[in-house]
C-alpha cells in the first residue's frame, strides 16, 4: 500500500467566496475575496477573475488593504502566515511568519468548543521576503470570529457580551452583558468612522447604536428595527452618513445616520446577506450572500455586477455529476435548479430551472426540490426527479426528461412523468454504453419496483422524441436500494436489500442473484476495462464485497465502513471513502487486487457523501505509483461543510508554477528591454492577433485548403508532363555547327511543390521589421 506522499488535499475550484468580508480597491476597479487557500481578484465592471493569488497552504481567513500603500493587501491564513501582495500585478511581496507559529483554528471546520483569540503581532521592516514576527501579545482571549476595528479601538460582540478595547489605553471601557437573553444575542458589530458610536445587530432583528461607551457607566444606546429575523451584517459608509444592514430577507437597508426614520431599500438580491462592505470612495457597495455570490451595487441604487461562485446549500440531494458535453460539474444550485459549474475556469456557467416555479422564502413551507439527476453517455439527455412532501398530504413526484437543444445550447424539457412511482425514488441510472442502440433509464423506488424507461426510436414530426415505460421489475417484494449498468450496457445490477440481482437489459430476464453476508447493499459499481468481470458493493454491516460475474461467486470481501464507493470511468481504479474516528480516509484500489494502491488518512473531518471523477483536459504523465491513478481523471469530493476539495500532485503543482513563471519571465523581459530596441507596438499587436487567429481554423477553411491543394497537385502533374515532353525532344543544333547554350536541368516534382509553397508565404512581416 502506497501512502499519500506528494499528494495533498486542496481547494482547487468552487471554493466559498462568501466566507469573509470582500475588499474593494480604492479606485473601485477591483474586488478581492478569500477563496479557499487563495485570494481572488475580480474586476468590478466585467466580473472576470483578474488574478489568483496563490501561496497559502491553509484556508485564507482575512484580508486587509495596507494603509500606507493602497495597491497592496495583507492576507492571513490558517497556515500561520501573513502575506503581503501586490494585487494589481498578482505578485507576492512578503511572507511574515509568527514565531512560534500559533495554532490557528480552522474556521471552515469549526467544532463547538473553538476559542478565537485576537493577537497583536509586530511586523518588522525588512527587505527580505521571508520575515519572522517575534513580538506577539494576546489582546482578547475569547473574541468573535469577525470583530470590527476603527481608529483607536476594536469592538467584539459575541453571544450576550459586547467588549470594546482601546489600543492606546490598553484596557476595556465597555463590557456589557445582555441580561435579558432570549433573542437579544449579538450577531454582528460595526464601528462609526468618525463618531464614538458602535452599531450592533441582534438575533431578534434589532439594531442598537451604542454611544458614550468611553465612560464606564454612562453609556447610552438607541434601537432601530426593520428586520424580522437576525441581522447578519452591518457596515457604515466611509463618511459615516449612512448605515447599511442586511439579513435573511435578502434586502439591503440603508439607514440615515442621526435620521434613522429615513431609510432606503434594495430588495430581491438573491440569497440571505452574510457580509456588507463599501469601497473607500463610497462609490460601490458589495454584499456577500449565502448562495456563494457577491453582488456589486452602485451606491444602493442598482446592481451593477454579480460574481457567482459554486452555489453551496445546506446539503446536496443529487450526486456530483460531470456533464459529458461541457465537462462542467453539475449539482443542486439555487432552490429548484441545477447549476453547471466550470472547474477549469472556476466559474458558474448557468443555472437550469428544473422545478419552474417561483421559490417562496418562508420558513416551514414545503416546496418542490430536485433530489435526483443523471446524464446519458453523450450528454444529449438529462433526467431529473423532483419531490414535495406536505405534512398531511401524499408525496408528490415528477420525473422529467430534458433534451439538449443545439440552437439554444441548453436543455429543453421534453417529457414530464407525474407519479412515476408510488413512493420515493431511491436511485436512477442511464445505460452509459457508447455503442448502445437505444437510450434506457432505470429508476428504483420504495414501492418495491424498478422501472425501465426507453426513448422511442420513432420520432413524431410534430412532438419530437418521446419516452415510455418499457419494463417493471421486482424481486420477492423486497425494496430496491440502488442500481447500475455495466460499462458495455449488457448487464443491469439492482440491489434488493440484502440480495443483488443481475438482469439482461436486452430481454429483461433475471440472469442470476449474488449472495453476500447479511446487511443491506448501499452502493453498487461495475469494474471497468480489464476489470469489467467484477461487481462491487458496500453493505450496512461495514463490508466491501467483490463478486466475480463469470463464476457468480464472492471473490473477496473486507471490513470497511465505506460512506461512498465510485469508479473512475477512464481506468480500472476505484475510490472508497471510509469514515473512521470522526474523519474520512481515502483508499484507491483495483477490483482484481484487494490491496489498496493508494491511501490518504483524514482527507477531511466528518463524512464524505458526494464525490466524482472528472476527466482531465490533458493527461498527466506521472510515473510514480502513488499518483498514477490521477493521470486521466481528477477526484473531487464535498465535505460535510460543503467545501469542494480535490487532490493535487507535486508534479501538477510544479507544472502550474512553471507555466506561470514562464509567462511572468516573458512579460518581465518584454518590459525590461529598452524601448528603442523593441519593434513597434503596432507590429507586436498585429503579430499577437495573428497568432490567435491562426490557432482557430474551422472545418470549411480546412476543406477549402484541401481542395486547393488537390487542384494544385493536378496542375503540377500537368505541368510536369509538359516539362517531360519538352525535355525529351532533341536539342536543336545551332547554325555553323556550334552548340547552343547549356539548358538548365529540369525540376523535380518535390522542388516544384516547394517553390509553390514558398510563393504563397506572406513576407509582409519582413518588410515591417525593415521599416522599423
From TrEMBL:
Q: Which Gene3D superfamilies match?
A: YVTN repeat-like/Quinoprotein amine dehydrogenase (2.130.10.10)
Give the matching SUPFAM superfamilies.
WD40 repeat-like
The protein's matches in InterPro entries, at most eight in alphabetical order, are given as: Beta-prop_WDR75_2nd (IPR057644), WD40/YVTN_repeat-like_dom_sf (IPR015943), WD40_repeat_CS (IPR019775), WD40_repeat_dom_sf (IPR036322), WD40_rpt (IPR001680), WDR75 (IPR053826), Znf_C2H2_type (IPR013087)
Instruction: Give the compositionally biased regions (Acidic residues).
Output: 710-723
Q: Where in the cell is it found?
A: Nucleus, Nucleolus
Identify the GO cellular component terms for this protein: small-subunit processome
Annotated protein name in UniProt: WD repeat domain 75
What residue spans carry the region label Disordered?
700-750
Keyword Repeat listed? The answer is yes
Q: In the UniProt record, does the keyword Transport occur?
A: no
Record's compositionally biased regions (Basic and acidic residues): 700-709
GO molecular function terms noted in the UniProt entry: RNA binding
Amino acid at each position: 500500500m502506497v501512502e499519500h506522499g506528494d499528494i495533498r488535499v486542496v481547494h482547487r475550484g468552487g471554493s466559498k467566496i462568501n466566507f469573509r468580508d470582500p475588499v474593494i480597491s480604492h479606485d473601485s476597479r477591483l474586488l478581492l475575496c478569500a477563496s479557499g487557500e487563495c485570494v481572488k481578484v475580480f474586476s468590478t465592471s466585467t466580473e472576470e477573475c483578474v488574478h489568483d493569488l496563490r501561496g497559502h497552504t491553509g484556508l485564507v481567513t482575512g484580508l486587509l488593504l495596507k494603509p500606507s500603500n493602497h495597491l497592496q493587501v495583507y492576507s492571513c491564513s490558517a497556515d500561520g502566515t501573513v502575506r503581503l501582495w501586490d494585487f494589481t500585478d498578482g505578485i507576492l511581496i512578503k511572507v511574515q511568519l509568527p514565531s512560534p507559529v500559533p495554532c490557528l483554528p480552522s474556521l471552515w471546520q469549526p467544532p463547538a468548543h473553538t476559542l478565537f483569540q485576537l493577537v497583536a503581532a509586530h511586523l518588522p521592516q525588512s527587505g527580505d521576503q521571508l520575515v519572522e514576527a517575534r513580538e506577539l501579545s494576546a489582546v482578547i482571549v475569547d473574541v468573535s470570529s469577525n470583530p470590527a476595528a476603527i481608529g483607536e479601538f476594536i469592538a467584539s460582540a459575541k453571544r450576550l457580551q459586547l467588549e470594546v478595547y482601546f489600543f492606546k489605553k490598553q484596557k476595556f471601557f465597555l463590557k456589557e452583558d445582555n441580561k435579558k437573553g432570549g433573542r437579544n444575542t449579538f450577531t454582528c458589530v460595526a464601528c462609526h468612522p468618525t463618531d464614538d458610536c458602535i452599531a450592533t445587530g441582534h438575533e431578534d432583528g434589532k439594531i442598537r447604536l451604542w454611544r458614550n461607551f468611553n465612560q464606564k457607566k454612562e453609556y447610552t444606546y438607541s434601537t432601530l428595527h426593520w428586520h424580522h429575523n437576525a441581522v447578519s451584517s452591518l457596515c457604515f459608509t466611509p463618511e459615516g452618513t449612512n448605515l447599511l444592514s442586511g439579513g435573511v430577507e435578502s434586502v439591503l437597508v440603508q439607514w440615515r445616520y442621526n435620521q434613522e426614520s429615513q431609510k432606503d431599500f434594495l430588495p430581491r438580491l438573491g440569497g440571505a446577506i452574510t457580509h456588507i462592505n463599501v469601497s473607500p470612495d463610497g462609490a460601490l457597495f458589495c454584499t456577500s450572500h449565502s448562495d456563494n455570490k457577491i453582488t456589486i451595487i452602485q451606491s444602493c441604487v442598482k446592481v451593477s455586477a454579480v460574481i457567482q461562485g459554486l452555489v453551496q446549500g445546506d446539503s446536496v440531494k443529487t450526486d456530483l455529476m460531470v456533464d459529458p458535453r461541457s465537462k462542467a460539474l453539475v449539482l443542486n444550485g439555487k432552490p429548484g435548479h441545477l447549476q453547471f459549474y466550470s472547474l477549469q475556469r472556476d466559474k458558474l456557467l448557468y443555472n437550469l430551472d428544473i422545478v419552474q416555479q417561483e421559490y417562496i422564502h418562508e420558513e416551514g413551507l414545503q416546496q418542490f426540490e430536485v433530489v435526483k439527476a443523471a446524464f446519458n453517455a453523450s450528454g444529449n439527455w438529462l433526467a431529473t426527479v423532483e419531490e414535495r412532501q406536505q405534512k398531511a398530504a401524499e408525496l408528490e413526484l415528477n420525473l422529467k426528461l430534458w433534451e439538449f437543444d443545439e440552437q439554444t445550447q441548453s436543455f429543453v424539457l421534453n417529457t414530464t412523468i407525474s407519479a412515476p412511482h408510488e413512493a420515493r425514488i431511491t436511485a436512477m441510472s442511464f445505460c452509459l454504453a457508447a455503442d448502445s442502440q437505444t437510450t434506457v433509464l432505470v429508476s428504483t423506488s420504495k414501492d418495491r419496483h424498478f422501472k425501465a424507461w426507453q426513448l422511442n426510436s420513432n420520432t413524431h414530426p410534430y412532438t419530437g422524441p418521446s419516452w415510455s415505460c418499457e419494463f417493471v421489475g421486482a424481486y420477492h417484494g423486497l425494496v430496491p436500494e440502488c442500481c447500475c449498468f455495466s460499462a458495455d450496457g449488457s448487464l443491469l445490477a439492482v440491489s434488493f436489500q440484502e440480495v443483488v440481482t443481475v438482469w439482461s437489459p436486452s430481454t429483461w430476464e433475471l440472469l442470476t442473484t449474488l449472495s453476500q453476508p447479511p446487511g443491506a447493499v448501499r452502493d453498487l459499481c461495475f469494474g471497468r476495462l480489464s476489470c469489467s468481470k467484477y461487481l462491487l458493493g458496500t453493505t450496512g454491516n461495514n463490508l466491501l464485497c467483490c463478486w466475480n460475474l463469470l463464476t457468480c461467486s464472492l471473490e473477496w470481501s473486507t471490513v470497511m465502513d465505506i460512506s461512498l464507493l465510485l469508479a473512475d470511468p477512464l481506468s480500472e481504479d476505484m475510490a472508497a471513502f471510509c469514515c473512521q474516528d470522526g474523519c474520512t480516509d481515502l483508499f484507491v484500489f483495483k477490483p482484481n487486487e484487494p490491496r489498496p494502491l493508494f491511501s490518504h488518512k483524514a482527507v477531511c473531518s466528518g463524512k464524505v457523501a458526494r464525490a466524482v471523477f472528472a476527466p482531465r483536459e490533458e493527461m498527466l504523465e506521472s510515473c510514480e505509483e502513488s499518483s498514477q491513478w490521477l493521470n486521466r481523471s481528477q477526484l473531487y469530493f464535498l465535505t460535510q461543510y460543503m467545501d469542494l476539495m480535490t487532490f493535487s500532485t507535486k508534479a501538477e503543482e510544479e507544472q502550474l508554477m512553471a507555466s506561470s513563471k514562464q509567462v511572468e519571465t516573458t512579460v518581465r523581459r518584454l518590459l525590461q528591454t529598452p524601448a528603442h530596441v523593441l519593434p513597434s507596438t503596432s507590429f507586436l499587436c498585429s503579430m499577437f492577433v495573428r497568432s490567435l487567429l491562426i490557432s482557430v481554423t474551422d472545418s470549411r477553411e480546412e476543406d477549402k485548403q484541401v481542395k486547393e491543394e488537390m487542384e494544385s497537385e493536378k496542375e503540377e502533374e500537368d505541368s510536369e508532363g509538359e516539362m517531360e515532353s519538352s525535355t525529351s525532344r532533341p536539342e536543336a543544333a545551332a547554325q555553323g555547327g556550334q552548340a547552343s547554350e547549356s539548358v538548365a536541368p529540369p525540376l523535380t516534382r518535390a522542388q516544384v511543390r516547394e517553390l509553390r509553397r514558398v510563393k504563397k508565404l506572406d513576407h509582409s512581416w519582413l518588410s515591417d521589421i525593415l521599416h522599423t
